[in-house]
Design goal:
Length: 193
């Protein structure tokens, strides 16, 4: 049996190369469908910290590289995917955390622009909505924004408070909802259905 590189290194070796030290755009993981290679000892905690074999990945560039090949499949599991390998990893909630918010403009045409812990920038719009779920036991809200594909970022508590300060009431569906505007779209943030 031939020696096989460790999963993390094997994944890195099979990613199509681009210029060194260049910020990597997400790979076209939706086009790649290799067989499952196994489960990797990699975990993303709710605060957005990436761990490999129990140790935090301290180099942001390395976490960004892994994030560029991350995919959430229909089975509800997260995978690191290359053209030749697919490794299951554990994600406690969602893989990213929105850590900064920039607001351009005002009113219904304002743009809410989030930056994640891994420097992904996303403007809230119909393809990148905000959603809020409420824990049925604790009644604590968990706000999210879509980053890409079906991958979300947890909106940090301080940014959620900032959104709440910007919130307005609006008739929505059968009632009045509290929410925010971005690019002409209204996004409820009150967590009600």
């Amino acid at each position: 049996m031939a020696d096989r590189p460790l999963p993390a290194q094997s994944l890195l070796d099979s990613i199509p190369q681009r210029g060194a030290l260049q910020r990597r755009e997400p790979a076209p993981v939706h086009l790649w469908n290799p067989d499952l290679s196994g489960e990797m000892d990699m975990r993303i905690t709710r605060d957005g910290t990436w761990y490999h074999e129990g140790d935090p990945i301290e180099r942001k560039a390395l976490a960004q590289l892994f994030a560029s090949i991350l995919r959430l499949d229909e089975d509800g599991k997260y995978y690191l995917v290359t053209p030749v390998e697919r490794w299951a990893i554990q994600v406690d909630d969602v893989p990213f955390v929105a850590t900064r918010l920039k607001v351009e403009g005002e009113g219904e045409q304002q743009q809410l622009i989030f930056t994640t812990n891994l420097e992904d920038e996303v403007t809230v719009d119909a393809e990148h909505p905000i959603r809020v779920t409420v824990d049925t036991e604790t009644e604590e809200p968990s706000p999210y924004v879509r980053v890409r594909g079906n991958l979300d970022a947890l909106i940090s508590r301080n940014l959620f408070y900032e959104l709440a300060e910007r919130a307005v009431e609006r008739k929505h569906g059968d009632g009045t909802r509290l929410g925010v505007w971005s690019k002409g779209e209204f996004f409820p943030i009150d967590g009600s259905k």
